[in-house]
Amino acid sequence: MHNLVRIDAACMELYRAIKLAFQILGYLEGILETLPIPGLWGYERLQRQRAEFVAAMFAQVTSEIAIILSGKDRQFVSDLLTIGSTYMPIYSDSIYHCHPQAYAWLLVKQAFINHEVTNFLERAADFLAQGSSDTPLLWYATLADLVALCDELALPESNLLKQEIVKDAATWKGVLRRLLSLFN
């Protein structure tokens, strides 16, 4: 399913890609009963799938969202997230999610976009502490946002943190060039 999002994004249909991505996430979370694509996609079909499979799909689609949003203007990203939240609202008080770490990234991104610096730093610290093994792209996207925040703050301490992250970024393997370019 994430390939459908990727195709729209590659065609620069970013609004459509985000809308589809959040519709898929809403479907995977059980918020939406069907998908907006041809076929038999009633929620009962999803319920027959293994939880690990559904979680993997959620993480893949969320990673596509991260690729689309990376390096974009905050207002544009905010507009995209507003469209997406129509299909799957992002609430910080929700308890269950099919992929908690990917959902946590959505909360991190939302805090960053909303200029909630303290909230972003707290959520990012928790998210990054979990490691990158299950959702590496989301992990690197969070670091890219942290570097962007360091640039905005322009404090000596934030500059030191940015320098450390950029230095480490030079050693990362398998990171998308587009994402890696945000660390230069």
Order of helices and strands: HHHHHHHHHH
What structural category characterises the helix and strand content? mainly alpha
What percent of residues are in strands?
under 5%
Q: Any idea what the radius of gyration is?
A: 16 Å
Biggest β-sheet: count, sense, barrel?
none
Number of DSSP helices? 10
Q: Enumerate the spans where pLDDT stays under 50 for 5 or more consecutive residues.
A: none
Q: Which tags fit this structure?
A:
single chain; 184 residues; mainly alpha; 10 helices; 0% strand
3D architecture notes:
It contains 10 helices and no strands. With 184 residues, it is mostly helical. The protein has one domain. α2 runs antiparallel to α4, α6 packs antiparallel against α7 and α6 packs parallel to α8. The longest helix is centred in the first third of the chain and has 19 residues. The protein is globular. The two termini are 32 Å apart. The mean pLDDT is 89.
Characterize this entry briefly.
The chain is an all-alpha fold and 184 residues long. The protein contains ten helices and no strands.
Set down the secondary structure blueprint.
Blueprint: H1 2-10, H2 14-29, H3 43-47, H4 51-69, H5 74-85, H6 100-113, H7 117-129, H8 136-153, H9 156-169, H10 177-180
